[in-house]
């Protein structure tokens, strides 16, 4: 009887050990005037990855605080694109943490990159599952990253400057067709509960513009009230979710008659181009 109980106890312990699925937590780190970098902490396996840690002197103290807990280890830096306010801290991180994996677009100048990516690659960082998505437009090689693997946490999307709360990035190195592909044919194919951790705190400006083209949207008005309260307390408006964005973000609603009538255009790509042009001149 004792032997059977012992075997059962060992089997239970093994089952627990095998449950090494990551338990993910995201820590947001404000940088510069309105940037966000992120730490994704796997609290089950004590691993950490950083996303766009561009300002090393802002990110390092937060990272060191997290690493001090249970002797955690920084495994990787994920870089969305080559703008300095997203990749400017890479050299400092690579110097401080030898052997660090640093990912970034293969066709952009990314400091300290060890794993250049084209998009659509899937790989593991510790037990965390990472997928790189090609979303060129804001920059020619722009990547978004999806981090998952925790059965109790929705996928985590880090779209850099492609998708914002209530908005999208400027078309610096691409076209409306490119951005349509990035938003509708790539990002919106993810589960709608996916959490969105974007690269900037542009929410209030984006929502004010959204209201100018969609003034009767009750969900949008509620979001504005919520965001105003958050910002009045100097709190972030991130994360959002894809499901929520589809209700009030005009750049994700170019098929909607309300948006089409507000900016003009007979097809979704023209509507998107007109919407971006209108936003670029919005005060």
How would you describe this structure to a colleague?
The termini are far apart. The strands form three sheets. The chain has a six-stranded mixed beta sheet with strand order 1-2-3-4-5-6, with helices on one face. It has a six-stranded mixed beta sheet with strand order 7-8-9-10-13-14. A two-stranded antiparallel sheet has the order 11-12. α2 (56-67) links the parallel β3 and β4 (73-78). The chain has a single domain, classed as Metallo-beta-lactamase, Chain A, CATH 3.60.15. The protein is built from ten helices and 14 strands. Helices cover 37% and strands 24% of the residues. With 283 residues, the protein is an alpha/beta fold. The protein is globular. The longest helix is centred in the N-terminal third of the chain and has 17 residues, at 2-18.
Shape: globular
In total, the number of strands is: 14
Question: How many domains?
Answer: 1
CATH class bucket: Alpha Beta
Derived structural class: alpha/beta
For this structure, the quaternary state is single chain
CATH hierarchy: architecture? 4-Layer Sandwich
Largest sheet: 6 strands, mixed
Task: Determine Rg (CA atoms, Å).
Answer: 21 Å
Q: Helices and strands, in N-to-C order?
A: HEEEHEHHEEEEEEEEHEHHEHHH
Strand % is: 15-25%
Which features does this protein show?
globular, 283 residues, 6-stranded mixed sheet, 24% strand, alpha/beta
């Amino acid at each position: 009887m004792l032997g059977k109980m012992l075997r059962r106890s060992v089997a239970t312990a093994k089952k627990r050990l095998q449950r090494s699925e990551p338990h993910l937590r995201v820590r947001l780190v404000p940088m510069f005037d309105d940037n966000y970098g992120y730490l994704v902490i796997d609290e089950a396996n004590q691993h950490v990855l950083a996303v766009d840690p561009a300002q090393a002197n802002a990110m390092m103290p937060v990272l060191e605080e997290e690493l001090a807990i249970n002797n955690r280890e920084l495994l990787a830096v994920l870089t969305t694109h080559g703008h300095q306010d997203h990749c400017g801290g890479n050299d400092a991180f690579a110097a401080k943490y030898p052997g660090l994996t640093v990912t970034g677009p293969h066709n952009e100048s990314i400091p300290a990159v060890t794993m250049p990516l084209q998009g659509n690659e899937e790989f593991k960082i510790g037990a965390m599952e990472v997928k790189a998505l090609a979303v060129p437009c804001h920059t020619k090689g722009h990547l978004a990253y999806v981090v998952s693997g925790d059965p109790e946490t929705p996928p985590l999307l880090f779209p850099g400057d492609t998708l914002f709360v209530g908005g999208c990035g400027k078309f610096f190195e691409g076209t409306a067709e490119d951005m349509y592909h990035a938003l509708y044919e790539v990002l919106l194919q993810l589960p709608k509960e996916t959490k969105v951790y974007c690269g900037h705190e542009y929410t209030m400006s984006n929502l004010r513009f959204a209201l100018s083209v969609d003034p009767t949207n009750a969900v949008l008005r509620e979001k504005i009230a919520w965001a105003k309260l958050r910002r009045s307390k100097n709190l972030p408006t991130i994360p959002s979710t894809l499901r929520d964005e589809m209700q009030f973000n005009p750049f994700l609603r170019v098929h909607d008659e309300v948006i089409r009538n507000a900016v003009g255009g007979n097809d979704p790509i023209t509507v998107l181009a007109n919407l971006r042009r209108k936003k670029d001149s919005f005060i």
